[in-house]
Amino acid sequence: MLKTTRKNEIISKAAKLFKKRGYSAVTMRDLADALNIKAASLYNHINSKQEILATIIIGMAEAFTNEMEQIKNQPISTQEKLKKIIELHIDLTVKSPDAMACLNNDWMHLEEKLSYFVKMRADYEENFRIILKEGIAQGEIADRDPEIMLFSMLSTLRTLYIWYTKKDGVDAKTLKEQMPATLLNGIRN
């Protein structure tokens, strides 16, 4: 488990505020108030609001990218790869719904790390696309347009944080049991 540091506290609180109000609407003073400290004290731990945003978004994007590479290269069926991708989204959403919101809603506010993020996002989607195309070629999944499959799955997975945080009684275990079956049944052969 990660050691809770003041910097981690700041990043966590910022993610909550960014999710609630959006990156542009949150000031460093808002963040300091939420942490019950002086705004100047924030700068003992971080350099800027942009650094906080980059830490949140790049951290999440790297987690997705690294895991996707591992999944893509495993010698398992397409169905198993897709199930693992869905479970990855569930795990990261359940663990960090506020960071997921930032990843999806505020990435365009990144400055110096924007091109790095955009490349990771494109690579992630391309790896997903490759898995779908391989599954079609091997007859493991239905011969449908991979772009429609990719869009349908990613649209659901990228907005899971919105739905999950509003649903009482749906735990991660149930979600991991039922969501892959729900999403994958539509593309099975």
Mind explaining what this structure looks like?
The protein is an all-alpha fold. The chain is elongated and about 60 Å long. It is built from 10 helices and no strands. It has helices spanning 6-21, 28-35, 39-42, 49-72, 78-95, 97-105, 114-137, 146-158, 160-164, 172-185. Helices cover 71% and strands 0% of the residues. The N and C termini lie far apart (41 Å). It has one domain: Tetracycline Repressor, domain 2 (Orthogonal Bundle), CATH 1.10.357.
What kind of oligomer do you see? single chain
* N-to-C CA distance: 41 Å
CATH topology descriptor: Tetracycline Repressor, domain 2
CATH class: Mainly Alpha
Output mean pLDDT. Answer: 92
Q: Strand portion, in percent? A: under 5%
Task: Name the descriptors.
189 residues, mainly alpha, Tetracycline Repressor, domain 2, 71% helix
Concise structural overview:
The chain is mainly alpha-helical. Helices cover 71% and strands 0% of the residues. The chain contains ten helices and no strands.
Topology:
Layout: H1 6-21, H2 28-35, H3 39-42, H4 49-72, H5 78-95, H6 97-105, H7 114-137, H8 146-158, H9 160-164, H10 172-185
Helix pairs in contact: 1-4, 1-6, 4-5, 4-6, 4-7, 5-6, 5-7, 5-10, 7-8
